[in-house]
Design goal:
The chain is of the alpha+beta class. Helix content is about 20%, strand content about 40%. The chain is built from 1 helix and 4 strands; from the N terminus they run βαβββ. The protein has a 4-stranded mixed beta sheet.
Amino acid sequence: VGNGSMVAWGCTSREEVDPVSKKALELGGTDEGAPGLRDYHSSYYAAFLRDPDGNKICALHRLPKA
C-alpha cells in the first residue's frame, strides 16, 4: 500500500471503464475519482479507486496525443 504507486490498465473504450469501476466498488473498493475525462489530456478517460487493502488502481482509456 502506498500513495505514490498505482496499478493501471488500459481499456479498449470509455464504455469499458465504467463497468470496471462499478465492479471494483461492488467488491469493496473505494472511489478515488469517478469515471470521467481528466484535464491533463484531452482524451484521458479514467476511474481511480483503492482496493480493500488500500492499493491504488486505475482503469483508463485514452487516445494518443495528436
